[in-house]
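Page 42, continued from yesterday. The earlier attempt failed because a stray header line got pasted into the input along with the sequence. Redoing it now with the clean sequence only.
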Amino acid sequence: MSIGPKDSLEQFIVKRYAQKQVNQPRLPESAIDPDKMMVSMNDYALAGKCMSVLGRKMTAVCYALNAANATYAKRKDLAHVLSVMLTVIISVSMI
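This time it went through. Structure tokens are written below.
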């Protein structure tokens, strides 16, 4: 087993393209500025974080509203629900 062109066509192709210079891309050069890429990634991550925090706050508010609109047979249960609602609202406002 030999390495190289085996027939006359392969020899012709090797000779022809051996003289050509191929434009090799250079790794240090990039079409995108690294600083702009980092700023874009940071903006995307920050938007995701804000959405997550907002989603948690909305969930807590919905739980509090559902608890406030529930009807209870005993007044003692209603007082407990109101205290839980206050705790949830205070904790949401601290986030």
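Notes: Helices lie at 8-18, 34-69, 75-94.
Reminder to self: strip header lines before submitting.
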